[in-house]
Amino acid sequence: MSADRRLRRFVRAWDDLRGRSGRRIVDLVLGQIAVARAGAVLARSVAEGTIERSAARVQMAEVEHEGDAERAELVRVLRRVLATPIDREDLFRLSRSIDDVLDHLRDYVRETDLFGPKDLGFAVEPLQAVIDGLDELEAAVDKIIDDPGSVTRAVLATRKACSRVRQLYQTRLAELFAGPLEMDTLRRRELLSRLDAVGRRLGEAADALADAMLKRSH
């Protein structure tokens, strides 16, 4: 082993002992959540009609690229560090689920442009619930190192937001099927299903973090 390689390994080990690598990993997960939130805000803007759908697709492609870069950096760091603030497998699950949230938001924005109905107002509340859930997840992740005892409460708040997405999905679907069955009905149903998928992926991220904190407490 070369002297430079030994030095790099020593530096990584020293950073692990001082807790720096743990903070670095947490910050990278927070970066992923921030990008997913930006995607959710963009999707909500589409639903509110404050941005054209074609323009939103272009912006979402940029957001997705940023999210991919954040995840790639997290994976790279996880492969190099000796110690992680929570279980390594749970970190991968958490990161993957956040990435899935962004992927479904990307698909939602694309589908609004491809075949979405003229009025997307029905999607505003579910998307706001997604944003609220991401905010709670961000708060939970940020406390992993300095205040691990409060992470579970923030995770529960994330799950509550996910339940809100699900409830809104069911309510909007019932309202939709109470009216005449038209092509617009099918379009709205597809978009509602996509938003429900966003909420489920966000719930999986919360579950991954909850599992990790349970392991850490034992």
UniProtKB/TrEMBL annotation:
UniProt xrefs under InterPro entries: PhoU-like_sf, Put_Phosphate_transp_reg, UPF0111_domain
Short name of one Pfam family: PhoU_div
Protein family: Belongs to the UPF0111 family.
Designated name of the protein: DUF47 family protein
Species annotation: Microtetraspora glauca
Lineage: Bacteria, Bacillati, Actinomycetota, Actinomycetes, Streptosporangiales
